[in-house]
Design brief:
alpha/beta; Rossmann fold; 2 domains; globular; disordered N terminus
């Protein structure tokens, strides 16, 4: 069990070493910066700067240049994205939220290389900011193949480069639209083709819808079940956890699970929490989240639990039984999964081994299937009942803030794959 004296460092490390830092939006003011092309200009015309100031409490600035790319100037301020970062360095350094709207103008020699250079340049100035990248939502038929490839790069690089994707394509066409499969020449709802691009389709517009999507993302608004993409044969799902589930969220797991099951998805996470003790984000224990989310849980057909790393329960076995009873009272027909503990901090491994034994021993009696995070990190031969104390994740160094060698966070993409394979 964690000692109370260690709790502050545990929660701090829980936030610091995830794929992207979580800004403390409750501590106002939080400033914001948007870097983009003509779409960013449209956001300014829609009044997004004022909306961000109202939502986050701090100053907001939109840097736009119509027709520009990361490496090529546009036709308004005539600066590349790189040059705007240099010009706006002081503003960027103060920003807690940074949103990038670039990629539509295919002027880079290599979009992927330029994207990596831009993120490196920005993070050198604002390393603690939360980063977001808006995908491409334009549909001009002759350019769609290139835009689909760029959207794939945007989504594939999100976890590695440390940003969350905001979908302009979905903001325009709805939650079931696939930004990796833009439909060539499809006009925006109720619109005609935009002149001057040599093919049917649209580039500009629907800025209010994109502003709403950006505001929802940067303020951490809880997703509502209603706008999710739901197929007629779709299966709704609910994921309940701690900072590991926050990592899944940063890895775009909602979209992956939605694509896999076809139904609505809700992730409930609170870094540092246990079944009985609140964490540091939404300040809710897992049991409290179940009560808050009971209407959604009642409709879920797949429920995944990732709890146990934070050793704060008086009795983990008893708390696990209470949680499963509360969940099954709401969703008795759902399929249940529990993710084992994959962390390796040497001083805490004895407790984690004991907890993993409880997780595996109780699987049949409590009615869930175990998904192994430990094996997703260390391979199929690894034994989650015999975690090696202080063993670093493959290719990693020990995670600071825990007073002993080993790791807690990371390898989230591998866990995502293990979950999707298990369903």
């Amino acid at each position: 069990m964690f000692k109370p004296s260690n709790l502050t460092s545990v929660l701090f490390a829980s936030l610091l070493l995830l794929l992207a830092p979580l800004a403390a939006l409750s501590a106002s003011p939080a400033s914001s910066y948007i870097l983009g092309d003509s779409i960013a200009y449209g956001l300014q015309l829609d009044g997004l700067e004022g909306k961000l100031q109202q939502a986050l409490g701090g100053p907001a600035r939109i840097s736009f240049d119509g027709g520009r790319s990361i490496t090529t100037p546009g036709n308004q301020i005539k600066k590349t994205a790189f040059e705007s970062v240099d010009a706006d360095r002081a503003t960027i350094a103060q920003a807690s939220v940074i949103v990038i709207v670039l990629g539509m103008n295919p002027l880079e020699t290599s979009f992927e290389d330029s994207q990596q250079q831009l993120m490196k340049k920005l993070k050198a100035v604002a390393p603690e900011a939360r980063y977001f990248w808006v995908d491409i939502g334009a549909t001009i038929s002759i350019q769609v193949p290139g835009w689909n490839l760029r959207n794939k790069i945007i989504y594939d690089n999100a976890a590695r480069l440390g940003y969350q994707v905001i979908s302009r394509y979905k903001a325009i066409f709805g939650p079931c639209a696939d930004p990796l499969k833009i439909i060539p020449g499809q006009n925006y709802p109720g619109w005609g083709t935009e002149d001057g691009y040599g093919g049917p389709g649209n580039v500009h517009g629907f800025y209010t819808e994109l502003s709403k999507a950006i505001l929802k993302a940067v303020t951490n608004s809880e997703p509502s079940p209603s706008p999710a993409c739901v197929r007629q044969d779709g299966v709704s799902s609910y994921v309940l956890g701690d900072s590991v589930v926050y990592g899944l969220h940063m890895d775009q797991f909602e979209a992956k699970l939605e694509q896999k099951l076809g139904g609505s998805v809700k992730l409930s996470y609170d870094s540092g929490r246990s079944i009985t003790t609140p964490g540091s984000q939404i300040n809710r224990s897992a049991l409290e989240s179940v009560e808050i989310d009971k209407a959604y849980i009642a409709n879920a057909k797949v429920i995944i639990v990732a709890l146990g790393t934070n050793q704060l329960e008086a009795s983990f076995a008893q708390s696990q039984q209470i949680l499963m009873k509360a969940l099954k009272a709401l969703a008795p027909q759902a399929k249940y999964y529990w993710i084992d503990i994959g962390a390796t901090i040497a001083s805490q491994v004895p407790g984690w081994n004991a907890r993993n034994k409880i997780i595996y021993d109780n699987a049949e009696v409590l009615g869930y299937t175990v998904i192994s995070r430990y094996k997703s990190i260390f391979g199929p031969q690894a034994n989650p009942l015999a975690i090696i104390p202080g063993q670093n994740f493959p290719g990693w160094q020990s995670e600071p803030g825990y007073g002993a060698p080993g790791n807690v966070h990371g390898f989230i993409t591998e866990l995502s794959q293990a979950i999707l394979s298990a369903l």
